[in-house]
Description:
single chain, mainly alpha, Glycoprotein, Type 4 Pilin, 3-stranded antiparallel β-sheet, 3 strands
Amino acid sequence: MKKFILLLIAVAAIAFLEPRSRAHIMSAVPFLSDANNQRTATRALEQIAAYVQATATQSGRYPLTETFPNWLMQAELSAEDPWGSAYYLEVFPDSFVVGSPGPDSRRRTPDDIRVAEGRAVREEGLIPDYSPAPPPSSTKTRAMRAAEAASKGKGE
Length: 156
């Protein structure tokens, strides 16, 4: 029995190494694919945030939010998350956020993946905003919990 299990594990490992087989395996087991996509998006967002910060430090300004996907492509970084949606940028007086709409492809929903960084370059004439940056996507605010509770109450 132990040999059979070892053989089964070995065959699965070999099949996973073949790209076409990996795609079939990942689609058959969606929770593995989703977790992998979230890790991939988080790593990409961390790299993008570091690049945005480095570029702003060198040039003295941040990319425009409207043209952020084009800016990413010019920087030879991926402009799309693993689910096919464009990464986005939000710039605040004291911080910036790069984000992915997540699996549902809609911004400002609980499944968004966001990386916030403090601004290295401040805009001229702005009074520093010492309020905290938006919470990470894993943190639920009271308003989010209230909205969830309200939507559950309507569905019943």
